[in-house]
Amino acid sequence: MEQENKPLSLVSPQAEFRESSIFEELCNLFSTFPKLRHDQDTTTDTTVATAVTSERGRIIELDRSSDNNDDESQESHLVVNEEAMKLLLENGGSSMPYELLRKILTYPLTLFRKPTKVIYKPSETFKDIAVNLAHLEDNGDFEEFDKYSEEMIEKYREENDFDIVAAVKVEQAQCALYKNDLRAARGFAREAHELAGCTRFPSLFKAQTYIIMSSISRYKQKLGDAKYYLGLAEQCFESGYSIVDYSHFYEVQGSYLSKFLGISPELNEQVKDLAITSFKKMGEIGSQDASQDVRDKKRFYALIKTVRILLDSNSSFGRKRRTVTSDAIHNGAECIRMIKRGLLDAMPRGSKIQFQLVESDLYYRQGRLEDAKKLLQKSLNEANEFGYKTEGPKIIERIKEIDTLMSQTMNIVEETSPETQESSSSCYDSETTKSESDVFSSEYL
User: Fold this and answer.
1) Which alpha helices (DSSP H) does 220-348 contain, by range?
2) Each residue of 349-377: pLDDT tens digit?
C-alpha cells in the first residue's frame, strides 16, 4: 500500500491550518481584535551608536535617544490580555496556535528597526599620538616622525593594543604618500590590513588601508584600480565609520574624479560636479569632529581644493590649454579671502606653502603673472628650507609655465556664460597632478 507524501510542518499534526497563508490568516484575525493598548503610537529608530572612549576606548555600545524618555515607551511592546486572545481565537475559528500568536504580538518591535551604523571614536591615547604625528608631518620633521611612530608601535604591540598599532601603521602609510614614497606606503598599508583582524573594529581599519591603496593607484594613473579600492572601502563603512576616516573617504573619492579633469582634453562638467559633491560631503562630515583643530584643518583644505577645481589648476594641461570663466575666478578669490580671514594663521608650514601655490594659481588666472611667479619663488625657497622636497618639482613646473606665458600672449579668461552663475562651497581635492598618461574612458566612473 502506497504511503501518502505529506509536506513537513513546523506545527503539531493536530493543528489544521486553512489553505490561506499564515500572513493572510493573521491579518484576518487582527481585524476581529478589539483595539489593543500600545505604549506609544509610533516607533521611530533614533539609535545612535558610539564607542566609549575609555582607557582603551573601543567598546561599542548603543545610545538610544527619543522624544519620550520614558523607559516603557522605549521598549515599545504590546500589552495583551491573554484571556481575551484565547477567547477570540476560539470564537473566531482560527486554527493558529495560541503560543505562536502570542510570540508574534509580544516580540520586541526593535526587531523591525533598521541596522545601526556605528560611529567609532578612538581612545584619548591615540588622539594624543595622532596629534603628535600630524604636527611632525605638517612641519616636515620626517625623521622624528619615523622614530616616534616606531616607538609607539613597539610600545602598544607589547600591550596588545592592536587598535593603536594598526592606526599608527596607517599614519605611516599616509606620511609615505605625502613624501611620494609609494612602495613604502603600500608596505605600511599591507601591514595595517593584516593587523585589522586583531583590532576591535576590523572593518574600519580595512577601510583605511583600501583608501590608501586607492590613492596609490591614482598616483600611478591606474584609475580603474583606484575606483575598485574605493568600492571596498565604501562596503566597509556600511557597518560603521569614524568621522575623520569617512571624511577622508570623500576626499579621496573627489581626488579620483578630479584626476579625470586633469587628463581630459575638454573639461567634463559632469565629472567636475561629482568631484565637487564629494568634496562638499567631505567638508560637511569633517565639520562634525569634536576637535576644533580638525574642523579648521578640514575647512582649510576644503577651500583650497575648491579653488583648484574652480581654476582648473590640477594639471599642467588644464592650466595651459583650458580656459575658465570670470565667475570661477571670482569664486576662487572669495575662497582665498575666507582662508586669509580666519584659517591661515593657525595652519602649519606645509599647509601654508600649499596655500601659496593655490594663491599663485589665482594670480595666474587673473593675468598677474609677475605676482604669481614671485609667490612661487617664495614657496620654492620655503619648501627647500623646511624639507618639503615633494613640493619642489610642482613649483618649478609652474614657474616654467609662467616664464613661457610671459613671452607670448594668451587669452586666459573667457566670457562668463549664463549657466555659470552658481558658486561652489567647501570641497576637497588632492595634490597637483604631474603629467598626462593614458587616456581613461568613462567606464571607470
Assistant:
1) 223-236, 243-263, 269-286, 292-311, 316-321, 326-342
2) 889 999 999 999 999 999 999 999 999 99
pLDDT tens string 67-101: 444 444 444 444 445 666 666 666 655 566 666 66
Give SS3 for 251. Answer: helix
CA distance 82 to 102: 8
| Any domain includes 392 | yes
Count Cβ atoms within 10 A of the Cβ of residue 105 and give its class: 0-12 exposed, 13-18 middle, 19 or more buried: middle
Q: What are phi and psi of 21, to 5 degrees?
A: -65, 160
Task: Give the residue-averaged pLDDT of 100-125.
Answer: 65
Which of 88, 119, 150 is at the close of a domain?
A: 119
Helix (H) or strand (E) run with residue 370 in it = helix 369-386
Determine which helix (DSSP H) or strand (DSSP E) holds 352, and give its type and residue range. helix 349-366
Provide the pLDDT for residue 427.
Answer: 35
Domain with 53 in it: 22-119
